[in-house]
C-alpha cells in the first residue's frame, strides 16, 4: 500500500511539473507575439472579459463618422453558475479609415495595456445556460443561439424579443442559415432540424442520417443543398426539398477521422472544406467528394472552425485547440508541396524528405494572440480584413492583419524568389561532385 501511495504522489508531481512547463512555454510564446505586433498588425485591441465566451459574431450594420467607426457584435458568457449567463450586444470604436481605404494608412498600434475605453455593452439577455453556438442572419436583424440546455433561442435584434425553438433532446454545436427566414440546427442527439423563423413550435423538416453528434452544418448559398459532419466520422449532404418526413442523405462519405467543421465556398458552390481531429484541413470538389484535391497542414491540434473570407475568395481561415488562427491562400495551390505524412520511393526520396519539412506554401498568416484554446472567431461581413476572436483565456481580441502597400508586396515577393533561386543554386552545386563522379565512371567504362 505505501508503494502505491508513493507512485501516486510521484505521478502527481510529474503532472504538476509538466503543467508548469507548458505554462512557461505559452507565456514565452505570448511575449514573442507581443513584440511582433507592430510588424504583423495594422491594429490589435485586446479586452479582458469577466468570464470566457464560447461565441462571438459580428453584426453587419455599422456607424461611421469623420474619425470613428463603430462596429457591433454579439458574444456570450460561460460562468460557473449556469443561471447567470448572458448574451451581450457590444460595440467597439475603430478608425474610420477602415471603410474609406483598406490599405495601411498609419493606423496607430494600441499599447500593450488592455484599453476598454472604446468597448461598450449596449444590451444583454439573461440565459438559463451558456450558448454553445451563435449565428447571425444574413440581414443582421436576427440571431439564433444553441444553448447547453438543448433549446435554440432566437434573438430579435430590433425589438430584443426572444423566441424558443424546442425539439432537440440534447445540446448542440451546429447552426447555419439557409436564408433570412429559415435555418438548420444539429445536436448531440444526432438529428438535424430545418426551422422557419416564424414557426418555433415544430421543425418543418428533419434529417436523421447521422449516428453520432452533429458537429457542424454548412448550406450552399442560394441553393437547397447543405452539408454536415458528425462524430460518426461521416460527411453527409442533404436536400431541403426532400418530401420525406425524415430525410436521408443524398451523399454520405466515410472519413478516417472525426471532422468538426465544414464550410462551403461563398462563390464556388462545388467547393467545400472540412477539418477535424487529425489537425488537417481538406479541400473537396463535391463532384469528386470521396477524395480531397488538397490538404492543408499547419495546426498542431484539433481544428474546430473554418470560415471563408467574403472579401477575398481565395482566403480560408481556420482555428483550433492550438490557440492559433491560420490563414490559407488558395492562390498558392499550384506550388509544389509534399504532405508531411507522405512516403516516397525512388530517386527523389532525399528531395521529397527535404520538401516535407517545409511550411505549406498556402499558409499565409498566423494570429497567435491567445494563451488558451480559441472558442470562436468571426470575419466582419462588411468591413474588410477586420477579425474578432474569443478564447478560454477570457480575452476578446479585435484585430486587422498588416496590409502592405503594393510596392512592399512586390519587394517581398522578389526577395522570396531570390531566396528560392539561391537555395536551388546551392542544391545544384551540391550535386556537381556526384555528376563529376558519374561522368568519370562512364569514361572509365568506355575505355574498358
From TrEMBL:
Domain Histone-binding protein RBBP4-like N-terminal: 28-96
Composition skew (Basic and acidic residues), residue ranges: 432-448
Main subcellular location: nucleus
SMART domains from the UniProt entry: WD40
GO cellular component: nucleus
One biological process term in Gene Ontology: chromatin organization
Keyword Cytoplasm on entry: no
Name under which the protein is recorded: WD-40 repeat-containing protein MSI1
Coiled-coil regions listed in the entry: 1-28
Region (Disordered): 400-448
Intracellular or extracellular location(s): Nucleus
Biased composition annotated in UniProt, kind: Acidic residues: 406-431
WD repeat residues: 296-338
SUPFAM superfamilies to which the protein is assigned, alphabetical: WD40 repeat-like (SSF50978)
Keywords on record: Chromatin regulator, Coiled coil, Nucleus, Repeat, WD repeat
Pfam families found in the cross-reference section: CAF1C_H4-bd, WD40
Amino acid at each position: 500500500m505505501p508503494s502505491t501511495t508513493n507512485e501516486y504522489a510521484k505521478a502527481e508531481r510529474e503532472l504538476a511539473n509538466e503543467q508548469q512547463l507548458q505554462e512557461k512555454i505559452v507565456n514565452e510564446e505570448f511575449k514573442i507575439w507581443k513584440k511582433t505586433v507592430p510588424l504583423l498588425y495594422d491594429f490589435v485591441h485586446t479586452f479582458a472579459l469577466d468570464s470566457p465566451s464560447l461565441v462571438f459574431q459580428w453584426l453587419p450594420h455599422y456607424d461611421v463618422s469623420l474619425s470613428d467607426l463603430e462596429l457591433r457584435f454579439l458574444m456570450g458568457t460561460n460562468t460557473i453558475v449556469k443561471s447567470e449567463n448572458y448574451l451581450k450586444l457590444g460595440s467597439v470604436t475603430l478608425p474610420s479609415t477602415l471603410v474609406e481605404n483598406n490599405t495601411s494608412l498609419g493606423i496607430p498600434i494600441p499599447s500593450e495595456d488592455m484599453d476598454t475605453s472604446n468597448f461598450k455593452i449596449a444590451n444583454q439577455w439573461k440565459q438559463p445556460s451558456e450558448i454553445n453556438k451563435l449565428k447571425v442572419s444574413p440581414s443582421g436583424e436576427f440571431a439564433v443561439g444553441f444553448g447547453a440546455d438543448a433549446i435554440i433561442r432566437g434573438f430579435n435584434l430590433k425589438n430584443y424579443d426572444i423566441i424558443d425553438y424546442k425539439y432537440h433532446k440534447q445540446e448542440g454545436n451546429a447552426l447555419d442559415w439557409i436564408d433570412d427566414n429559415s435555418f438548420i440546427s444539429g445536436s448531440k442527439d444526432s438529428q438535424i432540424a430545418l426551422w422557419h423563423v416564424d414557426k418555433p413550435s415544430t421543425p418543418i423538416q428533419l434529417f436523421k442520417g447521422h449516428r453520432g453528434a452533429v458537429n457542424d452544418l454548412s448550406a450552399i448559398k442560394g441553393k437547397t443543398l447543405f452539408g454536415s459532419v458528425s462524430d460518426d466520422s461521416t460527411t453527409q449532404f442533404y436536400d431541403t426539398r426532400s418530401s420525406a418526413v425524415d430525410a436521408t442523405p443524398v451523399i454520405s462519405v466515410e472519413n478516417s477521422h472525426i471532422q468538426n467543421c465544414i464550410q462551403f465556398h461563398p462563390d464556388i458552390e462545388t467547393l467545400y472544406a472540412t477539418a477535424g481531429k487529425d489537425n488537417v484541413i481538406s479541400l473537396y470538389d463535391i463532384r469528386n467528394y470521396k477524395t480531397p484535391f488538397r490538404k492543408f497542414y499547419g495546426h498542431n491540434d484539433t481544428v474546430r472552425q473554418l470560415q471563408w473570407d467574403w472579401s477575398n475568395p481565395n482566403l480560408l481561415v481556420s482555428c483550433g485547440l492550438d490557440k492559433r488562427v491560420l490563414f490559407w491562400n488558395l492562390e498558392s495551390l499550384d506550388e509544389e508541396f509534399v504532405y508531411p505524412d507522405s512516403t516516397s520511393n525512388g530517386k527523389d526520396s532525399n528531395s521529397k524528405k527535404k520538401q516535407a519539412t517545409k511550411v505549406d506554401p498556402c499558409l499565409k498568416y498566423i494570429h497567435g494572440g491567445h494563451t488558451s484554446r480559441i472558442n470562436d472567431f468571426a470575419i466582419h461581413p462588411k468591413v474588410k480584413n477586420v477579425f474578432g476572436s474569443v478564447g478560454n483565456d477570457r480575452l476578446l481580441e479585435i484585430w486587422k492583419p498588416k496590409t502592405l502597400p503594393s510596392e512592399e508586396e512586390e519587394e517581398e515577393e522578389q526577395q522570396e524568389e531570390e531566396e528560392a533561386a539561391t537555395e536551388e543554386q546551392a542544391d545544384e552545386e551540391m550535386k556537381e561532385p556526384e555528376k563529376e563522379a558519374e561522368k568519370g565512371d562512364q569514361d572509365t567504362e568506355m575505355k574498358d
